[in-house]
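Morning!

This is the sequence you dropped in the shared folder:
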Amino acid sequence: MPIDPNRVRHPEKANRPENPIQRKPEWLRVKAPVSPEYAQTRDLMRGLKLNTVCEEAACPNIGECWKKKHATFMILGAVCTRACAFCNVATGRPDQLDPHEPDNVAEAVGKLNLEHVVITSVDRDDLPDGGAEHFARTIRAIRKAAPGTTIEILTPDFMRKPGAIEVVVEARPDVFNHNLETVPRLYPGIRPGARYFTSLHLLARVKELDPSMFTKSGIMVGLGETREEVGQVMDDMRAADVDFITIGQYLAPTPKHAPVDRFVTPDEFASYASWARGKGFLMVSSSPLTRSSHHAGDDFRKLREAREARLSGRTVAEPVAVPAE
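The structure's back. Tokens below.
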């Protein structure tokens, strides 16, 4: 159920001092969403009482994606049990699970005629399995309603939820994504409810359970990390056999959230992309506006091609990244 607009989204941040608003550089400016397709996608989500991370996380790419009728569904309600300093999703006491949500998501996937769908969620530390079975039910519902659609999931860390990872992997998503978000040194201030090695273990465990399943993870930069720390995260991901890394610019959703330390230049993102490819990732997306689910369908096709090429000993040319208009 969409969150009450009159509710305080971030009560834990209400008494924090506000950070100065920084002017975005030219390469981070995007057009306001005004297309008819955007409105149609929004109306469909409202009609089926579905949440999207596109709206809840204030994604800068929402206009571009919804114009193409691409949306990232957010299941398990609209209220998160964590209080990350970077995230715009509402925090507090979570909603009751909607038993119809898996079927409603599947219906929306069919109406949007999606070739590839991304399903994410809030954290649900209040649930015994962290919402794992709800993820599995949603995957199965999409498989039934739209058997030709490939499915990518972006899950919580399922911390202290034994068996949860196994339940989700058994439902056979095509891509299992879990974001590390930032470097370990910044976790206490940026992701205080999470643990870096818990997230890293999740990614490694997915590959242990199903080596053929694509895994994906992402980080934000511009939070105060060093280049050396980003390189170490890349190495940790590769040690966990992660296939696909995304690197994007952190943007503060409100003045109460963690401040932007700096705006990383497009040339630096290109350098990170080259570095990551050298470390052996099958797929790399590194640009100021990169987000976990941005261009996910196109990226999935490239990911499959890259694996097939590697297995056959061929090489696949990497696309040249260009700044967003």
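Headline: Residues 30-310 form a domain with the TIM Barrel fold (CATH 3.20.20.70).

More detail when I'm at my desk.
O.
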